[in-house]
Amino acid sequence: MATSKLQAIWNHPAGPKTIHFWAPTFKWGISIANIADFAKPPEKLSYPQQIAVTCTGVIWSRYSMVINPKNWNLFSVNVAMAGTGIYQLARKIKHDYATEAEPAVANE
Question: Is the Transmembrane keyword given for this protein (predicted)?
Fold first, then answer.
């Protein structure tokens, strides 16, 4: 039973013998790097970078459901990219626009 399931995965049109498997697998590195940046202070985040990550995730999530064969690895990595990008953008926007300016302390 397990052998037939492994053969089915191996011989799938989006399986490990194709680029349709390996490209999204390596794309997980972008999502992992974005998760690692959760510890980074918001002032060090980049709007263009996070907008690109978010848009890529949203656009390619949709596209991955339209193409044949269905590529769930591509879909999941792009959902992760969109999610991490949205979270990082929210952190950056909150930092830049929602925080009150700290009053300057006079040095005497």
Answer: yes
Distance of CA 60 to the CA centre of its chain: 11
Mean of the pLDDT values across residues 30-35? 95
- Whether the predicted model's global pTM rises above the 0.90 cut: no
- 24: CB partners within 8 A, 6+ apart: 71, 73, 74, 76, 77, 78
Model confidence at 14: pLDDT above 80: no
Region at 51 (left for phi over 0; alpha for psi -120 to 50; beta for the rest): alpha
Place of tokens 């974005």: 34
